[in-house]
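Journal club prep — side note

Before the paper discussion, L.F. wants everyone to see what a predicted structure for a comparable chain looks like in token form. Sequence:
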Amino acid sequence: MDVSVSARVSGSVSNGATHADAYGRASLSVGDGGEINALQARAAAGQLSPVEQGTLARLMDRAGGGTAAGTASAKAPKAHSGAKTAADFTVTGGNKQDKADLNAALKYLQQTDSSGKAVSPTATKLIAKMKEGATIHIIHDGNDSYEPSTGVLNWDPKSGLKVTSGEGIQSAALGLAHEMDHEVNGTVGKPTGDGYQNTEEKRVITGSETTIAHDLGEPTRKDHYGSTVVMTTANAHTEVKSGKIVDGAIAASATTRH
């Protein structure tokens, strides 16, 4: 069964499974991974992909079931103060460095000023609303997306986005916040007939994405397009005030994806 998903920028995505139409940093398509019974059978045979592991964990959690063999258990809800970290999510598909990048991105989005106030209240509140144990699947192809049918958020820790306005490159961290908005506040997108492509993407881009970008001094978008660029860190971006890349750099071996 095909399902609508959300992606950071208009384009095509592959997650090692099937494909579908999406919203997020792009408009694409991803299959739903199957029903619980089929996934349990694959888990028992040790055949689940990282994305399917996250899907099964989420479906079983909704159904009130346990954890199948071959899947990672979701983090139990816990009371805590302060900023969320990677430990508050179910992270699949990544290595130690990817988790470090996720922690760096979360810290960047939830940073405070000298008085202890959030630099970006919008980003801080958005992350706070994410469910404990929500699945973040690490990818390395620049195709950030959110799959509402499975609850899986796909994120590339080193994927900057060169915007069409000419302002520069948004950070991978901002792309993470974009997908989180789809997860926390997502609606069914309807065609807009303009550069935003659908109402859901327009809501996120003109809403939280632009607000967070202004808060953190990053470039903003006027459409759902752009080119992904490999960066050296999750927080590397063009500082609008100076026009320079800060918090990292464009990777020496960077490739630009359209």
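L.F.'s comment for the group: The helical segments are 36-44, 50-63, 96-109, 121-128, 172-185, 199-216. Keep this in mind when we get to the figures.
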